[in-house]
Model the fold of this input.
Amino acid sequence: MIKKVLIANRGEIAIRIMRTCKDLGIKAVGVFSESDRDSLHVQFADEAYCIGPSESSKSYLSISRIITIAKLSKCDAIHPGYGYLSENAEFAELCDEMDIEFLGPSSNAIKNMGLKDIAKEMMKKADVPVVPGSNGILRDLNDAYRVADKVGYPVILKASSGGGGKGIRVVKDKKAMSDAFNLTKEEARKSFDNSDIYLEKYIEDFRHIEIQILGDKYGNIIQLGERDCTVQRKMQKIIEETPSPSINNSIRKKMGDAAVQAALAVNYHSAGTVEFIFDRTTENFYFMEMNTRIQVEHPITEIVNDIDLVAEQIKIAEGKQLDTNKNLGKANKFAMECRINAENPDNNFAPSVGEITRYIPPGGYGVRVDSFLYTNYKTKPFYDSLVAKVVTFGYSRKEVIDRMIRALEEFQLEGIDTNIVFNIKILKNKNFLLNNYNTNFLNEDNSEI
Ligand code: ADP
Ligand code: ADP
Ligand code: MG
Done:
């Protein structure tokens, strides 16, 4: 049984994990950087320890310090949250060696899904549909020309070790290939210390739809339905909803089954997400990548399935067996999340830092807020701009959207720039309401937004 967990993260996700620990009667140990002394996750923890200077590389990413604190404070598990060390196979392996439960999948599953070209080849073998493209990495420029001719332009070049939307380049036609090939390789080498790149067909009109899965340590995988994360800015999600208004039950079932196949292929346990491209023109879907961790937008899945995903991660680590006959994801509820970022939508989403002069979050029936802000708190320039997640649920898409508008209009958050008003504008946009948009929605010249 797990009695004490170290939470190797900060912000809203650290608090969210600590809350579940308390619900389960488990002690929560926090870690913080020097600039995070006054952060709310430190107050929420039963014990908290400083692990280094403000820069993440010297604190929240310091494997040795985090493991040392876990050992000294006698924790039997570590929850990595999202970002930071959550998809670091070496960290997961070290936890294992030190006899600490890593609250996530095996280091092997992280490794296999971490290299995208390898993950893609594994998915092909497991009969999970993938975007047509190269078989693994491109050998040279001629190889790129050859594959691009075969699948047809436009194509996209991707870094094998890429992530966070980096190391990706769209190639419109043959003329643009040579430069794009060299630039992407160079960027991949600089950003990820690995110049391997691969190529696939560029899908122009698609929805980002992902499936939440859970796996136990006995080879059982269940899926909990989809999340539609098509509203993105700069390839980053801002609004997520479930169910997806873009797929019918037959596609939903096929996608859920494909996600289970994907997870089985890497012998997955714990919570994970399989991301798919859903081509609006052909209605085909393709594996994009698997995120081997809890995701930012997991609360909408929790609400419609009436399940605490972090509690499941802990119970799975303790040896809980999942019942595959009880496949979830057939909920009749609707839920939506808006990410509230400290940024200025009128100035190319420039990050904003400052002192919170007023913080009154929304509430009432059907509203959940996950945040770490409080009045007089000074936000820090060193970390991610996500400051709150507002989640609403209801029994139709319209009810959920109306409730979200009500909640965001209620939200009093002063002292920093935020995208609250920008979110409201999207929610009131005609094409959003009619579900007539793709991942380029916010990149297009959209006068209503
Ligand atoms: P990351 O690890 O950076 O999230 P992904 O493989 O998930 O990388 O791709 C990031 C984004 O790039 C996707 O959300 C999507 O918007 C776009 N993208 C990826 N593959 C394709 C493709 N084949 N066609 C069109 N867009 C794509
Ligand atoms: P998801 O794919 O889970 O929706 P994202 O990929 O948008 O989420 O968010 C994960 C990213 O959040 C990480 O790559 C990192 O940049 C950032 N991040 C890491 N830790 C935190 C944190 N404590 N609070 C907010 N953002 C974080
Ligand atoms: Mg992705």
